[in-house]
Design a protein that fits this description.
With about 200 residues, this protein is an all-alpha fold. It has ten helices and no strands. Helix 2 packs across helix 5, helix 6 packs antiparallel against helix 10 and helix 9 packs antiparallel against helix 10. It is globular and about 55 Å long.
């Protein structure tokens, strides 16, 4: 008896890539929802709240992320990757390299300003979190450097700008307002970015 297309696909694993792609999409969706819940409720938000917001059962969350630490690490890495990928995209789509830099810095400020308890969790001493800071620097420093270099090559900022020091300065400006709702971190960072043009 000849095999059906379904039987052939099953035997050859032809459906597996589609399933893997679906699983990746589901995981990305869960990470985006979890990040939003972390922003509003902190990293200690109940898993059931994340599951409800995502429209899935708690079992689905635990299947992808067996522990809360797994989920926190995945959300952090997901947000770092989104920020890293935005750099080249903004450079390609913005009116100028300086505009791309300014827009990317806004994304970076959003990332730093909406971690709600994540920073404290990452400094908790749990060895699973230890590599994340190095990962953050390894992924985002080169992206920032490429944006700074492009703006400098276009004559839109001064040439003596160190990407690591620049990110550190932004981080300090963002940290300044954690306990004061009157503090405008984005406004302060905008002043820093505007100052690059006067070098």
């Amino acid at each position: 008896m000849p095999e059906t297309d379904e039987q052939t696909a099953e035997q050859t694993g032809a459906q597996l890539p589609k399933k893997r792609a679906d699983a990746r999409r589901n995981e990305q969706m869960l990470l985006e929802v979890a990040a939003e819940v972390f922003v509003t409720s902190g990293v200690e938000a109940p898993v059931r709240d994340i599951a409800k917001a995502a429209g899935v059962g708690m079992g689905t969350i635990y299947r992808h992320f067996p522990t809360r630490a797994d989920l926190i690490i995945a959300v952090y890495r997901h947000q770092v990757e989104a920020c890293a990928e935005a750099g080249p995209a903004l450079l390609a789509s913005s009116a100028s390299p300086y505009e791309a830099l300014r827009r990317w810095v806004d994304l970076f400020v959003d990332f730093l300003s909406t971690k709600h308890g994540l920073a404290a969790t990452l400094q908790s001493g749990d060895p699973r979190f230890a590599p994340l800071h190095a990962y953050f620097l390894e992924r985002l420093t080169p992206v920032c450097a490429s944006l700074l270099d492009a703006a400098a090559s276009a004559g839109q900022i001064g040439r003596e700008v160190n990407a690591g020091g620049f990110l550190f300065a932004i981080g300090n400006l963002c940290a300044g307002g954690r306990n004061d709702p009157r503090y405008d971190a984005r406004g302060m960072v905008h002043l820093l970015v505007a100052g690059l043009r006067g070098q």
